[in-house]
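re the bet — no i am not wrong, look at it urself. input seq straight from the record:
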Amino acid sequence: MYKYTVFVYAICKNERKFAERWYESVKEADGIVVLDTGSTDGTAEFFESCEKVQLYREDIQPWRFDTARNRSLDHVPQDADICVCIDLDEVLHPGWREKIEAAWKKDVGRLKYRYTWNFNADGTENTVFYIDKIHARHGYRWVHPVHEVLRWVGCTEPQTVLVEGVQVDHHADTQKPRSQYLPLLELAVREKPEDDRNVHYLGREYLFYRRWDDCINMLKRHLALPTATWADERCASQRYIAQACLAKGDSAQAEIWLLRACAEAPYLREPWAETARFYYEKGDDFACVAAAKRCLSITERTDTYITLASVWGSLPWDLLSLSLWRLGMKKEALEAVLQAEREAPNDERIRKNRILMQENQ
């Protein structure tokens, strides 16, 4: 016998290829609210035939993700206890309902759970962090036109707790364009120019679009904001500035920003790995070895979106082996390349390097 009433809610548009898989993963809920925002591929028709699904259709103009999510949330019954927001390209692992009920208490307002954002080609997990889109029915609203987040709008916010065992996998549609992200992020920054999160995301988006100067200027703006105090994200901004500087051919500035990133969050592997790669490509093998070893000395992986799977795999060992080899430290180089191969057994280049090093000891 369930203790709470649990509803899943989602927005969708032309996601028929994900609909059945998604529906099977959320059926443990008491009810499922789907807001279709203009599908033409049969997505809405599929949900019309599904048990437990309450389908609504609405054309959101002008388009904003926060508006669409709030509209879908508005359709969840007022007497529901727990809401689970999950997109159609995401999948909940079976047994989630029992786990969230066990974690839910009177003073809890949100649950944080494990989220696999993407996967490697061999099916293993790549980027993993924790998100908190399971929440109480009342007191929360979505904000921001894109990269929207839940915000508490009541008086005293209840606590957020980690729920063990709940896992969501994200299987992104790589064919879906992200062209709407940039204008929506620019809108978000115009609406709230002092919101450090939006400014950071916009700078990162400019990096994706290869707008190097816009990227650098926006991320410098992020770093100058008084609310930009989260070291992990500040470190990411500095790394992105370094990448943009390198793309412009400004190696000196790239080095400065990479070292700033290392100093900003020395407990993260990401800045040390990028710094090691920078020095390897520059030919400064002593500096590469130092940065790679500093990277590998970090054994605790963060649970935020900042983490990069590559720095927890073969990359630092690979860089270390290459620079050690160039320095003539053959035994140490072989030890490093063997570890790199253990991390990436299907990497042909690393395998060839290992054979070469073994033959030339």
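see?? Strands lie at 6-12, 31-36, 53-57, 82-85, 90-92, 108-116, 128-136, 140-143, 149-152, 159-170. told u. also The mean pLDDT is 96. so pay up
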